[in-house]
Amino acid sequence: MRKELEAHVRGVLKVFGICRGPAGRANLRQGFRDQLAEAGQADPALGVMADMFVPIHSSLCAAAEAMDEELRIIARQSGLACRLMTVPGVGSVVALSFIANRTVRHEWLALCIFENIDAVQQISTAWLWS
Known about the structure:
Elements lengths: L1 H14 L10 H17 L1 H33 L2 H6 L7 H20 L5 H12 L2
Helix pairs in contact: 1-3, 2-3, 3-5
């Protein structure tokens, strides 16, 4: 949601002739808010947008950071997640998603006794699209 909000604001700023790249890291996100506030001082329309955007963006960033920290704590408690996170590019979200997907699929398959592979395909397709 944060990224969509930033992209929308970048699009609005572009109309006013202000170009800003994506805000990836925390210091760039604060810079994004600072630049928007600075543009808001020059133009009253941008000022209204900045006054509304900056607190919302700050709240979204804080919520995302808190959620990431909670997921890191959960991942540290799982031996499997810790092993998965040793793979380059695999963080806590990817490791926990992999574990959840694998667990759910195994539990779902354990609920049914299948007579052939076609039955597995039909039931799984119906389950996915329901």
